[in-house]
């Protein structure tokens, strides 16, 4: 699914009005009806509803929603910051039926005790920080004890830029029109956006399909269409020969997790290349995997042989000893097959950036934000980090998997794909090692680097979601994520 900027959405809006054709006020009605349908589903008990409207079209939506909810049996009170506004605001202001209490407010809503508050103060037309009387209103909204639902976007949040003021509505839910907004994927906006939802308002799909956007959200349908089904005549030899280079004394767990995740992700033949300390451990814990054992006891110091391999995963539990770093340099120089580099592998590259020039095109890096800042420098905010990751991926011709609540995959051409699965329970030791294993297995089965990363991240998150459903976010571990991989793959396969 594409994510469009506010100006692209405005164009889609204009195009729909001209070409459907539909009057702008009727499009507002359609948007408000879609919002109301969502609202009635979420709050079926006919609670008291307080609608706070600004004077733009977001406010106009609020007024239309007030009317629709009143018709559906809700007790509605409307607070407007003005009795006059945009053309469609004015029409909806005059359409407000009798029986809706209304109040034109200056800088205070007065006391609101119960019910649900709908925030229609500012939408995508916000063009400066919220100050003065509007700031006081936002303060009151945030002090309200009940749930707050923002129409389209929380007032004070920009769709495509970082928040620049102190006064921003903190919504419980945000109901966005037609598509999600880039702002929803940024960690610092989580407390403003709350749980977000998208409702269809019938903007011209053909126009959206032809609008150039390099920002996407990965959906189940996307992954379903890319998932390779094992062929009837497949055998272990053509399901990919993969190697994990992993482990050091005290860090063999990372290796086990990555190996198990790879096997649960369809790796045909898996070899774990480990230092001597790891031989018995890996052979006992993961009997399905072969072990290739380096002569040195505690950590990697030697060149590996990738002959006959289809994919390599480098990083889980490697440690960052100087000699391991020298070994990493050799591994990277002789890489001829698709590879994913994680964790300590990335940390070593950060401390010796000259290694970068030997990294083959299309290699996948899977940093979390801290590892990414070691690679590319500190970012002021998530929007800047997004640009930095995009530039880094393009410049070094690598796929970046930037891990976070919405893990983002950056391809080498400047596109970014936000993942839509996963939960806070996955921020647990070993979760990243499992992801490395999954991606290595997919690379081995012939997925392109970009799609191995996108599909791997999605499946990893989905397995985490299935695990969280049964076990809860607090108790789940990385091993649980692996245990739920079969459910996740089946879920994607199901049609
Ligand atoms: N295609 C769609 O998605 C549809 C969207 N709709 C809704 O329209 C709004 C956008 O409406 P717009 O009139 O452009 O902007 P706002 O309502 O956000 O308000 C603009 C209004 O406010 C002034 N303003 C901006 N920033 C500030 C500020 N910080 N302080 C004070 N005043 C400010 C600005 O000058 C304007 O006067 C979109 O979000 C949807 O909710 C349609 O209803 C359906 C189609
Ligand atoms: K709003």
From TrEMBL:
K(+) binds at residues 58, 119, 155. GO terms for biological process: metabolite repair; nicotinamide nucleotide metabolic process. Binds 1 potassium ion per subunit. (6S)-NADPHX binds at residues 57-61, 123-129, 134, 152, 254, 317, 368, 433. AMP binds at residues 403-407, 432. Pfam families: Carb_kinase, YjeF_N. It catalyses: (6S)-NADPHX + ADP = AMP + phosphate + NADPH + H(+); (6S)-NADHX + ADP = AMP + phosphate + NADH + H(+); (6R)-NADHX = (6S)-NADHX; (6R)-NADPHX = (6S)-NADPHX. Residues 9-209 form the YjeF N-terminal domain. Keywords: ATP-binding, Isomerase, Lyase, Metal-binding, Multifunctional enzyme, NAD, NADP, Nucleotide-binding, Potassium. Gene3D superfamilies: 3.40.1190.20, YjeF N-terminal domain. Residues 219-492 form the YjeF C-terminal domain. In the N-terminal section; belongs to the NnrE/AIBP family. Homotetramer. HAMAP family: NADHX_dehydratase (MF_01965), NADHX_epimerase (MF_01966). Catalyzes the epimerization of the S- and R-forms of NAD(P)HX, a damaged form of NAD(P)H that is a result of enzymatic or heat-dependent hydration. This is a prerequisite for the S-specific NAD(P)H-hydrate dehydratase to allow the repair of both epimers of NAD(P)HX. This is Bifunctional NAD(P)H-hydrate repair enzyme. It comes from Mangrovivirga cuniculi.
